């Protein structure tokens, strides 16, 4: 994936910040309803994205109302920002939404807001820094610069939302989860790694 496409993908991922924003403004119940509704919508639409026959049917239907050039442009953009394994399997948005729903339902408010914000913003900053400026790379393609950018951004976010001890532990957990891209998908595992680590740290230390 080109740097330009990667940046477009991360900009799209930043829409995930709506979850902590809604939690801050409206509280847990409204956020659960919002995330659950988004997940249901994504699950309904997902087959039309990954199954060629269904996608072609939708394109033919849309062709009656929308210019073909616009349909093809949208399809090319979606293809460009999709990972190879996502083109015919579950997309990152599904994994992100499932993890966000679990976290909002079962973790304390500050941990939920912090984990989702860190996983969303930290991942984007790591890519924005690491892709064009990463000079010291590991075997998996990750860079020292990108990982450091994730850690520092996560540390600042969690320092502001919780405190410095939680920030250090949570930032380290998120950085490691982002670096190793834990299965089934980093958009799922990153959020949960941060949330679970913060929760255990609080129970054990505080």
From TrEMBL:
Q: Which UniProt keywords apply?
A: Membrane, Transmembrane, Transmembrane helix
Q: Which domain of life is it from?
A: Archaea
Q: Which InterPro entries does the annotation name? A: Dgk1-like (IPR037997)
Q: Which GO terms describe its molecular function?
A: ATP-dependent diacylglycerol kinase activity
Q: Which residues cross the membrane?
A: 32-51, 90-109, 115-134, 146-168
Name recorded for this polypeptide: SEC59/DGK1/VTE5 family protein
Q: Which organism is it from?
A: Thermococcus aggregans
């Amino acid at each position: 994936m080109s740097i330009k496409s990667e940046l477009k993908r991360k900009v799209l991922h930043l829409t995930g910040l709506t979850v902590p924003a809604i939690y801050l403004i409206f509280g847990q119940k409204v956020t659960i309803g919002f995330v659950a509704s988004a997940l249901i919508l994504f699950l309904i639409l997902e087959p039309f994205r990954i199954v060629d026959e269904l996608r072609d049917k939708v394109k033919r239907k849309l062709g009656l109302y929308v210019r073909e050039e616009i349909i093809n442009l949208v399809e090319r953009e979606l293809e460009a920002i999709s990972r190879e394994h996502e083109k015919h399997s579950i997309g990152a948005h599904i994994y992100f939404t499932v993890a966000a729903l679990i976290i909002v339902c079962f973790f304390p408010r500050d941990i939920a807001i912090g984990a989702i914000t860190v996983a969303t913003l930290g991942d984007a900053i790591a890519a924005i820094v690491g892709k064009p400026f990463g000079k010291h790379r590991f075997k998996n393609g990750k860079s020292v610069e990108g990982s450091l950018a994730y850690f520092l951004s996560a540390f600042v976010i969690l320092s502001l939302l919780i405190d410095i001890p939680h920030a250090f532990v949570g930032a380290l957990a998120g950085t490691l989860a982002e670096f190793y891209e834990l299965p089934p998908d980093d958009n799922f595992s990153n959020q949960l790694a941060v949330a679970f680590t913060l929760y255990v740290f609080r129970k054990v230390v505080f």
